[in-house]
């Protein structure tokens, strides 16, 4: 049926090509490239979140848990045992996947607010553990990765551009995974679960297994992002890596502002929000402490009130756009009399 | 041991009032207000300024906290929350999370990041009763919480507005039909909910310092209390508060201070998983 | 026609569901044979939908047992029961609103097919129900009768042996109703067993070979349509309920 590329997909591919070329046109060690790399990393994180939050509509407020597990696992394996972060990142992903599976058992029946609360508490548990179990995690002071010069086999580079391309590759992989999931059998099942869990069960969908699969994949990708973040920034501590607003909410917010459950949403959201935050930090932080974070919160409130379907809704050809136009129309029930007449 | 029990009950009574506000908001509006603890912070600041510039004891300043935060809450509900009442939970979650971040950082801008505390004459005083030390600020805060709870019960049970709130909680459509202004009632309920929490924040000011991030320390505590008592249950929140207070001060005997919250988290996730409707069923 | 000699495909024995102290379904036993259309009647609140939910696994049984093809299915999750061959439609068309009609049906067809096979199966089912023309429509744009038919198409796409229909004809015009009844009969001739809740007595009488009547969760009568319709307890149940409804109006 839809064998040819849609205009949206062509735009996405063009974006990836342009993004790959960017380091050739800007200072490869400069601040601009760092911001761009961060935006792409957050896009990858938001896309990972989107697998659970967008496709299954399980609103997680605790994805920082998996992000932090990824960062801690690879970094500790490297610092304590000299294991390359390239291997450590998959250990972290495996651990995060395992944690997601464990968390699924007590939470799979929870919906909406309750699920959000439970995931939030889970990330908080990990934050408290990371802070208190200092003999293993290094405690509240956090972990630093010593810089030993460019060592590709140890995931260490002098040039920002190297990290930038790795992050871009990660984003492409997560987007590919998202698209395969969304278009595959599991995508249909996830959307069914999202829209009516009982009806999905009766139509033969193993709702628990579908959600479990999505959470595991989502957690694993989030953990990969965590490792990359740790390698890129050289330093992190429990409060910043397991942060509610800094990580968990931001991941979700990027996906929501861009367009929940859409392929392009997290990328658009990240390209819009991360540079905006960067500018806000640069110009507003000096004005008053907290102002840029205040703006961040205010944008989230505004985004929910103005266009809950996200920026993707302004792309007329997208499904989000069609649905948003439908939202705007007053609902006229098809045959109002019949239901009440029985 | 007994000492910890007494401390726990005294603390827990205040937690009860703090969490009652959250539970009331959920019970009436059906919205889980993630920003709720920020109103606790606002309440504490109002009481602090009342103490600093008006010389009011926080126990009296709490009345001012109640009134001012009620007004703020009413406006927030009518301008923001009202618009997502019928939206899917995700929209409600993120609207209130956005509010949380905005309020916390607005406070940081306005009040600065320093910790502020009050000094009152009874701060380190207390009563000895059969070998148990009853701290005066704990006791007074507990007494204030009990008085406010009684007033709340009286208000919900007897006053017309209170009854309207309960009616809207049960069936908004039917309430609208019999002439209740549901939008106004939602506003009042939200205002009342955050005002209760602000009051709770004000009365603990003699033994807890306030800073813009104080809300973060209460978020999980508050939700644990409410989830224990059953989301939406006002009586359950009061009982849940005392349970959490006791668990907290008992666990302090066994665990180092950083792990105290861990106990709460574990209880929290366990209760959510096993009995999302709450352990304590009540009105 | 019903193969009266065949072993029952569905056996419910002593099925009971209690909510608090209320007995929504009270020790109901009946059987359904392959190729049989049985009507389930009873006044509002008699427990028909609760019985349906307990059969397909949406509602946990307080007591009793449900067997499908001789195998115990009570206690299984709905998707397992669907896999074994029993599913139901929802009274108020619980479709997946953000999906097209074809996608709705495909989701169910994925139970036994891969993606391509599911699409083919969905198109086949839609054609059989005369819904091909609206395959690409969003379900939120459908009329209520269309939704009910898509609901039925989705259930059929799981390729059930037993299908529980909860008021799929509620809003249909007489002609549409005849079309749907023709489809049900032809599926019956292929060996599918139906348990049908319907308020249109005309449809019930025309379609069913046998009726079961529920009131206050209890099975009060069972037999041929005319026998059950003339059964004194059934008449009393309806008249009582009718009188009560008239008093409320």
UniProtKB/TrEMBL annotation, chain A:
The protein's GO terms of the molecular function aspect are:
branched-chain amino acid transmembrane transporter activity
Supply one GO CC term from the record.
plasma membrane
The transmembrane segments are 31-52, 64-83, 89-108, 162-182, 252-276, 282-306
Membrane topology classification: Multi-pass membrane protein
- Answer yes or no on keyword Cell membrane: yes
Keyword annotations from UniProtKB, A to Z:
Cell membrane, Membrane, Transmembrane, Transmembrane helix
Q: Where in the cell is it found?
A: Cell membrane
InterPro entries given in the database record: ABC_transp_permease, LivM-like
- PANTHER family, per this entry? HIGH-AFFINITY BRANCHED-CHAIN AMINO ACID TRANSPORT PROTEIN BRAE, HIGH-AFFINITY BRANCHED-CHAIN AMINO ACID TRANSPORT SYSTEM PERMEASE
UniProt protein name: Amino acid ABC transporter permease
Q: What taxonomic ancestry is recorded? A: Bacteria, Pseudomonadati, Pseudomonadota, Alphaproteobacteria, Hyphomicrobiales
TrEMBL record, chain B:
Gene Ontology, cellular component aspect? plasma membrane
Q: Which PANTHER family match?
A: AMINO ACID ABC TRANSPORTER PERMEASE PROTEIN, BRANCHED-CHAIN AMINO ACID TRANSPORT SYSTEM PERMEASE PROTEIN LIVH
Q: What is the lineage of its organism?
A: Bacteria, Pseudomonadati, Pseudomonadota, Alphaproteobacteria, Hyphomicrobiales
Q: How does it sit in the membrane?
A: Multi-pass membrane protein
Name of the featured protein? Branched-chain amino acid ABC transporter permease
Q: Where are the transmembrane segments?
A: 12-32, 60-81, 93-112, 132-156, 186-208, 220-246, 253-274
Compartment(s) of residence: Cell membrane
Keywords from the UniProt entry: Amino-acid transport, Cell membrane, Membrane, Transmembrane, Transmembrane helix, Transport
